[in-house]
């Protein structure tokens, strides 16, 4: 009797042990099946949990980085929208009345502000963007301060990046060349000599507004002037008026505008292209 009881006990223990083993096997099998097959498809957001022990655990392949061919379109990247290449002003209109832009196209592939014909702006509207633009102050110097070679690039038709011939021509600091006009002073005055071509490479992130029209995120601007960083993720507090405080009412995508300052600035522009940033 005792012997039978002992045998029964071993049998019960054996079965229980066997079932536990099967359960563990099942668990391990499930874990393996859930592991990704082939190249891992992970994102930065999933960088959490236990510390990785293999390099593959922190490497991902999707989404793939899009290819852009640099210098593909007369110096512009392959995916750039060409706004001005010297041949015509088809991408631009007069800001005042939306008629054809009236600035002068020159034989060297540039255009010049035609005095008192008004600002010109792109037909197309933009939000966040990478903008390349080249500009030149006239060789023949006229005027002083803000009246010497004054123009400007208005991002989203509102926020002016100042263009000015500041060589031996002091003016108020927050109105110098390269400023976010009257808001963001430039980190450096990096202009080339008067009469030579400057480059602006502008990285702009548009502001964000809620449905009620309140701003939830300011625009920012970064500018490389002739290879020199002059604006470093500068907050755009709002519009850039000559008189008054910045204001920032809700808006969507808007044109890029170039300024006719109205005092015979004769500023030249060439090689203008943009890459919208999503
Ligand atoms: Mg200006």
Tell me briefly what this model is:
The protein has one helix and 15 strands; from the N terminus they run αβββββββββββββββ. With 278 residues, it is α+β, with helices and mostly antiparallel strands. It has one domain (81-276): Jelly Rolls.
Verbal overview:
Helices cover 12% and strands 26% of the residues. With 278 residues, the chain is α+β, with helices and mostly antiparallel strands. The chain has a single domain, classed as Sandwich (Jelly Rolls), CATH 2.60.120.560. Strands 1, 3, 4, 6, 9, 12, 13 and 15 form an eight-stranded antiparallel β-sheet that branches. β10 (208-209) and β11 form a beta hairpin. It is globular and about 65 Å long. The model is unreliable at 1-37 (pLDDT under 50). The structure holds magnesium ion. Magnesium ion binds next to β7 and β8.
Q: How would the blueprint of this fold be written?
A:
Elements: H1 2-34, E1 81-84, E2 92-94, E3 104-105, E4 111-112, E5 120-122, E6 129-136, E7 151-155, E8 159-163, E9 197-205, E10 208-209, E11 215-217, E12 219-225, E13 228-236, E14 257-258, E15 268-276
Antiparallel strand pairs: 1-15, 2-5, 3-4, 4-15, 5-14, 6-9, 6-15, 7-8, 7-14, 9-12, 10-11, 12-13
The chain binds magnesium ion.
Helical/strand content category: alpha+beta
Please give the oligomerization state of what you see. Answer: single chain
Gyration radius, to the nearest Å? Answer: 31 Å
Q: Helicity, in percent?
A: 10-25%
Q: What is the makeup of the main sheet?
A: 8 strands, antiparallel
């Amino acid at each position: 009797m005792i012997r039978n009881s002992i045998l029964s006990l071993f049998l019960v223990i054996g079965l229980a042990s066997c079932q536990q083993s099967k359960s563990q096997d099942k668990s391990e099998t499930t874990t393996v099946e859930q592991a990704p097959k082939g190249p891992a498809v992970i994102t930065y957001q999933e960088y959490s949990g236990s510390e990785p022990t293999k390099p593959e655990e922190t490497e991902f392949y999707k989404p793939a980085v899009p290819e852009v061919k640099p210098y593909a379109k007369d110096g512009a990247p392959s995916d750039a929208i060409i706004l001005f290449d010297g041949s015509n002003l088809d991408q631009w209109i007069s800001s005042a009345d939306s008629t054809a832009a009236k600035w002068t196209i020159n034989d060297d592939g540039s255009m010049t502000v035609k005095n008192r014909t008004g600002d010109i702006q792109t037909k197309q509207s933009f939000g966040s963007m990478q903008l390349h633009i080249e500009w030149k102050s006239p060789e023949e110097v006229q005027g002083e301060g803000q009246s010497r070679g004054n123009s400007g690039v208005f991002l989203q038709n509102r926020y002016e990046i100042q263009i000015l011939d500041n060589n031996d021509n002091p003016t108020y600091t927050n109105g110098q060349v390269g400023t976010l006009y009257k808001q963001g002073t430039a980190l450096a005055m990096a202009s080339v000599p008067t009469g030579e071509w400057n480059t602006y490479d502008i990285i702009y992130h548009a502001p964000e507004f809620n449905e009620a029209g309140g701003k939830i995120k300011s625009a920012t601007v970064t500018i490389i002037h002739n290879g020199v960083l002059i604006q470093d993720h500068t907050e755009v507090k709002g519009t850039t008026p000559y008189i008054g405080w910045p204001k920032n009412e809700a808006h969507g995508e808007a044109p890029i505008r170039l300024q006719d300052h109205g005092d015979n600035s004769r500023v030249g522009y060439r090689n203008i292209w943009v890459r919208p940033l999503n």
